[in-house]
Amino acid sequence: MPPQRAAGGRRGLASVLTAVAAGLLAAACSSPVSSAQVDINASAPAVSPTASPTATTAPGTPAPLTGLPVSAADASRRAVALVIAGRHPRELSDADVIFEEITAPRRYIAVFQSKQAKAAGPITSTSPADGQVLSVLRPAIGYDGGTASFIQVLDHTKVTDLGYPAHMSPYRSGPHGLTASTKKLRDARHGPAPPELFSYRGADSGSSALATAGQWRTSSVTVTIPGFGRQRWTFDGRTDRWAQVSGGPPIQVANLIIQTVRYKKVFLSRKLGLTSPSARVFGKGTAEVFSGIGDTAARGPGGLAAKGRWAKPGLLEVTTYVDSKDFPMELQPGTTWIILAPRGTRVEAAEARS
């Protein structure tokens, strides 16, 4: 277990080991499934600009997935996850946490808790990574169908399956594809609030640093993913946010985590030999974290950056992110974007200059 800082850390974080059989999660790799075609060489989506809200110091209860103050009622409500893909994702900026799975087209596992989305989408089909990523949160999940084996895998995890077309009322079809209302999904099946996923710095934690060692300032990040091109993020000092400016949705977030994970080919159709890459988020690996500055005396060019490691022992365990001295990294309150990066991904950070 990594050492803990004297102040700060997660509040109310409960981690429980699960006895889910590994063979079940692997079932998607061997079961005959539908013949839906997948374009493995599709380019990264381009979407209309959106922006995340900046942190505030207003009184309130910290939202479990952002650390930002909200009402007690909002802090205690259930999380809703939507699986989104397509060239023009809608309402991603209302999500608290976004997991980006490197597939074609790109998949965004967006988790909404502190805010609502009226018509987020386009909603896409489920994949084996969904249950692995989301079970610790025990959310309701919205998605648009999927192969029989993929849905079976999902239903043996700890999410509440509210997928389309089995549950039609929260969804709407339109010019932007299938969209979903997070409020309608949450109202359809109530559940507990999620645990906190991250440690946050600030007045409550007594910390103003992202990491205890190896922290530096950087103004931009280029992520080169084998076979999938590049993403470029820049630090916006006016909003204290990291902005994606190319290679994906032009969104602003408080934290960017590049988490190197293993990918495995899963069969869409064994008969036709159709496969798709699927992220595996159990185990451990390296991570690079880029964060805003916050209300500290360290204002200036560039955001905070640090290299470290991640670990997730099991399905119901929270992923931990620690620095080079095994202390938990402490993020800036706000939205967090996590790239589930395949091995071989190259990360180039430009050092900030005054």
Please describe what this structure looks like.
With 354 residues, the chain is mainly beta. The chain is built from five helices and 22 strands. It folds into two domains: 65-188, YerB-like fold; 199-351, YerB-like (YerB-like fold, 3-Layer(bba) Sandwich), CATH 3.50.90.10. The protein has a 16-stranded mixed beta sheet that branches.
Name the structural class: mainly beta
Low-confidence stretches: 11-57
- CATH C-level class of the largest domain is Alpha Beta
Number of domains: 2
At CATH level 3, the topology of the largest domain is YerB-like fold
Percent of residues in helices comes to: under 10%
- The gross shape turns out to be globular
From N to C, what is the helix and strand string? HEEHEEEHEHEEEHEEEEEEEEEEEEE
The end-to-end distance, rounded to whole angstroms, is 38 Å
Radius of gyration: 19 Å
Give the mean pLDDT. Answer: 85
Major beta sheet summary: 16 strands, mixed
Tell me the number of helical segments per DSSP (H or I, 4 or more residues long): 5
